[in-house]
Amino acid sequence: MSTKSLSARKNDLSIPQKQLEYLNDGLFAEGELPTFKHKLEQENSFPLQPKPLEILQINLGYMCNQVCSHCHVDAGPDRKEIMTVETMQHCLQAIKTTGAHTLDLTGGAPEMNPNFRWFVEEASKAGIKDFIVRSNLTIIVANKKYYDLPEFFKKHNVHVVSSLPFYKREKTDKQRGKGVFDKSIQALQMLNAVGYGKEGSGLKLDLVYNPSGAFLPKDQTAMESDFKTALKEDFDIEFNSLFAITNLPISRFLEYLIASDNYEDYMYELVNAYNPTAVQNVMCRNTLSVSWDGWLYDCDFNQMLELKVNSKVKHISNYNEEAVQNRNIIVSQHCYGCTAGAGSSCQGTVA
Amino acid sequence: MAKNYYDPSDLRKFGEITEWSEELGEKFFDYYGSVFKEGALSAREKSLIALAVAHVVKCPYCIDAYTKDGLERGITKEEMMEAVHAGAAIESGATLVHGVQMMNKYKKLSM
Known about the structure:
The complex is a heterodimer. Chain A is of the alpha/beta class.
């Protein structure tokens, strides 16, 4: 497993255009598989348009203390893109006018942004009631300045959504790096200790499972039950729900698929598992993604592919929800990842 | 036509058998789908049985399919290998139990 981002390795796949070429060529250009657009057209679902906005997902930066092999952000310690206070202030202005009820903070490790806590506090004052922080867990034990994060989350009733690819050490460490499993367990115990994931506490702790390889998640409910039993028995850890998320064929996961000669089979798998019901609830229809530098995207994946919203308003500094909502969502072949099987979103399955 | 008997990408075309016999093909796939649903046995348990049988009948397509199915269900590699051994034990047992027939015949023919 590489300890550097694609970007630091100057890998071709760090260039969004190269990824898009890969996704548009080959199987799809030759007509062996239908493009996502064609699939939507067949079902009269094209163009895909937003439903009322519910979630504003803000990416606070690509810096992370981990270099996970499947990361669609290509995040890592070598990524220096971090949201500035000025952009945060633009976000706060937008938060005051938005119809969205949830603020979803992601990264990288969002907690590594030096103004993370200030931003949560200000957004709280601006009226946000429902906060999600996507935490990689290990950040909580990475440095003593982060040790009190569980208390901080509790104070603002932040809904913590944490990645834990599997309830066993081997698979987790293979995907996320050596030692990540033990640190994650320690962080989960710290979150449990302040009440997170405990019945009746009102403090929500959800886990994210994503497959550690070229296969799809199958049964979210069965997997949740396996996770709950194993984590309780082995470590006395409790959590609320498990979200099963499909790995999308972009960035580092795309690199893995190509290098392991799994790309073609994986794309077949995604296309064959296409579920029209999932299309109705894909997250790009109720979520808007804001990048570290303030650009607006249909989702975090389109952000990484630098596919800015198809709207007159493209930046948070001149945010206008009406204008942004009146747009067509940009799709490409990676979108099959969100419509396969029971569907996939940042909140797990959708169908 | 490929010069080798097995091609991994043929597994994707499995559904095409219905094109040459629609009624039987559909009946088979309906039946197959029902068999692997949750029932008195869980889908997870059935996946492990399928993996063991796949090895016993030595079907490379089935081995690929049920290794992936196991991964998708979060079945561990230790569980998968034990299932393969269960299949192998029955298969070798099936050979060895014929040793009794050999012994019987030997005894019958011997003075």
